[in-house]
């Protein structure tokens, strides 16, 4: 497995990774009209693609929608067939290292649903601090409102 900066050419394969993640895990909760654009949220700074045997298997991005606040880790996804191999950990480490030199505020933030313990356990193992929990400001397709966990990690 290797990680490199995401290129536009990666997006077709990354949409397939996202589709498999959505179908298996319900992330994202609502399938986007334009999944390639969804991988590039407002305030997008940069993103990386994880590759294994010539196939895209994961993605993570950084965004700074507010220049005066900590940047966000966004769109962290790993193909379900490639989990348990350290890909999410490596992608997160890549984003953290890049943010340490590229972001104006010395911290990163992210949010995750309470119902995804594998994800939030990864963040906690990597030194992220839970800042608060609260109901989401959105609902899943079945109408339920998930509980969100917000995390922060100081970079220096």
TrEMBL record:
Keywords from the UniProt entry: Acyltransferase, Transferase
UniProt cross-references to InterPro entries, sorted A to Z: Acyl_CoA_acyltransferase (IPR016181), Bact_Acetyltransf (IPR050832), GNAT_dom (IPR000182)
Entry keyword annotation includes Nucleotide-binding: no
All copies of domain N-acetyltransferase, residue ranges: 1-156
A Pfam entry, by short name: Acetyltransf_1
SUPFAM superfamilies found in the cross-reference section: Acyl-CoA N-acyltransferases (Nat)
Entry superkingdom: Bacteria
PANTHER family reported in the protein's UniProt record: AMINOALKYLPHOSPHONATE N-ACETYLTRANSFERASE-RELATED, AMINOALKYLPHOSPHONATE N-ACETYLTRANSFERASE-RELATED-RELATED
Protein name according to UniProt: GNAT family N-acetyltransferase
Lineage, uppermost ranks: Bacteria, Bacillati, Actinomycetota, Actinomycetes, Micrococcales
